[in-house]
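Cross-check.
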Amino acid sequence: MGVVFSIMRPLLIAALIVLPSAAAAQVAGHVTDETGQAVAAATVEIPELGRRVATGPDGAFQVALPPGRYTLVIRRAGFAPAVREIIVAGPQTIVVSLAPSPFRLEPVTVTATRSPIATEGSPLPVASLGGQALRRAQGVSLAHVLEGLPGLRTLSTGAQIGKPVIRGLTGSRVLVLENGSRLEDYSWSDEDGPSVETGFVRRVEVIRGPASVLYGSDALGGVINVISEDLPDAGTGAAILRTGFTLSGATNNAELGLAGRAEGARGRFGWRVAAVGRFAGALHTPAGELENTGFGSANAEAVGGWRGARGGLSVRVAHNGGEFKLLEANGPDTAATGGEEGGPERKSADERLQVTAERVTGPWRLVAKGQFQRHSLIEVSDDTVPGGGGAVGESEAFNLLLQTASLDLLAHHGAGTALQGTLGLSTLGQWNDASGRIPLVPDARVRSAAAFAFEQLSLGPRWSLLAGARVDVRRLSADADTALGLGARTRDATAWSGDAGVVWRPAAEVAVSLNLGRAWRAPTLFELFANGPHLGEARYERGDAALVPEAGRSVDLGVRWGGPRAHAELAAYHNRISRYIYIAPTAVFIDSLRVYQYAQADAELLGAEASLEAEVRPGVLARARIDGVRGTNLTAHEPLPLVPPLRAGIGLGWRDALEIDVDGYARQHRPSPLDIQTAGYTLVHVSAGREVTLFGRAMRLDVAVRNLFNTRYRSFLSRYKEFALDPGRNIIVRLSAGDVD
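Predicted model, tokenized:
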């Protein structure tokens, strides 16, 4: 607890600075359509302060803001969102005109620069999922929720565990954030996905490409940021109380889900509590039931915050946990039609305490983010009970506990209308404890610190430049472990990251971007010190304590076009990774298991993504997308393993009421020698929804059918593909109330 207090102490000091109010200027505005008619019930958001107000029947709004630079985001269903940059030095009035649009686009990203910026102004390729699209995709696995976005796939262990894949990279090369704070887990384990609940959140933002300059190690392949809803704000009005719930069920694995939320505000204090429970039985494929593939999960959060005229303080507590059964098989297809009950099971639990303090002073917005995270991962399996006459019981194969305390200090600034940016300091302390009958990694500690700067310069309406640099220092101390044959080790690393990008707008509807970046990743404990059987992969794995950090150099080129009836995006990239860490088979066997050794080589990934959405008739949207990536081990002159094959899809949607999607997955024509090949396949999905009134309350009823034709297929990225088909048809019914767009 002493370490936790030392991390949180600066935030408590910040609270004393934040809470006293100070004079603020009144910003008044009027929102109209293109004909000058008032737009009522439009939302005006100030993302820097986490505040929002709504326009009245006359389209007017008013908000008190301390002096400084802010981004206003104005939204209303049926209109394209508008973004306005304002500098508050005194009272002012603005007028915003909204153009009709059938699309629901996220106009601002906070992940690409750690401060709000218009999506079209980011040279980094970004994507987001929110609103109805996020609610329709809800599930227990973050990776499965996001896999419909361009460039994203899922390395799956059934339907309940998934690791996000961004442009061919996954695991510890993809960093997951929650409200800008990094989530630490056992990313080297294929059966430990990100512990985050998307049922509580407003949207999920994704950077498709390296972003170490902002987030340090592990952001080599991309970043996923899960962003919570803003707390309600009563201001000087009456107290607020809102509730919401979601009931859901799925036929394939008899999954049942229940989520509830309550939130409110009184004066300057806002709060929210929420909980989600999901329980499911065995998965079913077109060939039959897959034994030991059920799960149960329970997630909850509580958050409260105070707002002053110049800042705020919020405290959030979250728990994510569950028990996930793992399919076993003795050979190809032996699991496809069922088998004996029982088998291995993963138990995970993740608790987080997050404290955020903000203060606006002149041109500076100061933010302190502190987090303490406790992440545990236990695998239990059937084993003979000593002295039990051959009876079989459960025993812990391994028990891992990871505790992390982190602190980010950010100083966002704006100088006039041309220059804005962020200066930052980050520090992290981490403790890993391992036990169980299967030795995996030694007990270890990590200490790291970093400093960075990221700046944006606008050169008129057509050009903007972005550049940043970062230095990280890191120390890993591993204890001696006789079971692994290791002595005590200490490893120090210093790494630098950089980024430079340009955005050119030859026309109001077009943005052309170019970004050059350098990123890095430190080796994981498993890559360094593994020395034992990995039964899930039927091999014996050995780490290499001499591994050094990976370094990536990337080039991204993108074109975005947005018109009143269509929008499109095209992106191409090249990511060259020096000292890429991979695993390769050797000629040695231990206890009938082939020994696989971690090694390093140069590698590259080249790929492209394209998407198009257009209104073909009033209320009818057509969409198409395609993405592909090619990965090569340049030292061995062979393809990288588990690189996703080419994917293409088309779809039609009508007014959030009916959607039909067809997704095609090609055969991987460049498999690695370690890959198990799968055939190409096509899946059809349909969904429908409408607003209903039940018991006097407005609700939404959604019905979706995944894999409509019960197609037999094996995903190239499924860890079960050698011995089981992927899930068959699944009908999902969801009833919700109290959703917030």
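The mean pLDDT is 89. The chain is about 5% helix and 60% strand. Passed to J.P. for a second look.
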